[in-house]
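User: Predict structure, ligand uridine-5'-diphosphate-xylopyranose.
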Amino acid sequence: MKLSVIGCGYLGAVHAAAMASIGHEVVGIDVDERKIDALSSGEAPFFEPGLPEILSAGIASGNLRFTTDIAEAKGARVHFIGVGTPQQRDGDAADLTYVDAAVDALLPHLTSGDIVAGKSTVPVGTAAQLALRVEATGATLVWNPEFLREGWAVQDTIDPDRLVVGVSDASTGSAAGRSGGVSRPSTGLGSAGGSSAADAADVLREVYHPAVTKGTPFIVTDLATAELVKVAANAFLATKISFINAMSEIAEVTGADVTQLADAIGHDARIGRRFLGAGIGFGGGCLPKDIRAFSARAEELGRSESVSFLREVDAINLRRRERAVHLVVDAFEGNVVGKNITLLGAAFKPHSDDIRDSPALDVAVRLKGLGAEVTVTDPEALENARRQHPQLNYVDDRDEALRGADAVIVVTEWDEYRRELSPEHAASLTAGTIVVDGRNCLDAAAWREAGWTYYGMGRP
Ligand code: UDX
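Assistant: Predicted complex:
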């Protein structure tokens, strides 16, 4: 099928390449010329395992190309919108400028029968508003949220754990505006709209044929539910992490060990161990801004109390970064001025070069602000980190970064630090033997045995 993907960032570039890899003819479109040049020559503009391979294969096969010219979207059956929805500069709500611009630019090139499939994470009610504009051209708008995790984005796109398609309820005109309104709940394809809505869902089934054939759950619902599925999933994940981090805070005043606590409660299948990793908390381009945007939207809808817990989730998360800084400061009896502190990690999580709202860099910047000499290393994210925080010292080589350090903090749990760095080897390079394990990913006993003073998060 001919597809266009508008927006070639972490979401769109992967989507375009993944769709080409399953046999579609795809054009990826972005306003950023540098990004398009890189992608056109088969280069991924960011680190994502597996992406360079499917990019080059797609380009070589002729199934995949990139352009800055939106007119080249013409002729595609489905147009995916995958532009960013960052947090507004002066508030918590999502900035929809890029979504609005992408749709406006696309409108003149739509043909009756086309499908516009929104993938960006948007406040509930956005899709219904966009549908009015899109459907005036004879095209159909659906909302098809994306659940990919950075670092596993290629696999998550080709083989997702579920597919969700929201279609507009043409028969009831249940479009809920951005400023309010209630959509009629839908129980499935039959009640989700007229025949064009059903057809649109079928076209999406065809787009995702390998996953659909495999039996991946394919949920057809209304636009509002589809938009909410995405923010609800991220709100739940953020809450799970902050829950365990709240338990960390209690563990810290009682001498309990939050990692054992997480193991023990995680054996309960209703709870599960995943996303119970206590540490310096969540960051990245999604969870932090999505919970804030959700709170802002709930407020607009007059339901702020329904998600007021998300403010607490955010606050707990930010407190853990502060806690990691305190552990270091306390280890130096209240004064880190002039201390050489090495941070292992800069990315918001391993297998990514993404530093958006990275807890790792937040800790680094705070320590620098307290007068420490901060050195940061990371296998992939240094270039991005250097650009954003030029005041820090960056060293590519892990061992060079450790040399002469008075203290070491693990802030991103790359294998290079958690598995491949022996405490004996680290001690042979550093000047001091204080280690703060901001991700609870080191073998505490082994590090203590090697002479280190080990501090975990929520661990005795
Ligand atoms: C998230 C969602 O998982 C994904 O479904 C959605 O599409 C986009 O947002 P991502 O931002 O790639 O994906 O990262 P994720 O793997 O969810 O991790 C988010 C943050 O939580 C990272 O900073 C990670 O270090 C932190 N985290 C994760 C914890 O602190 N503890 C955990 O147990 C798990």
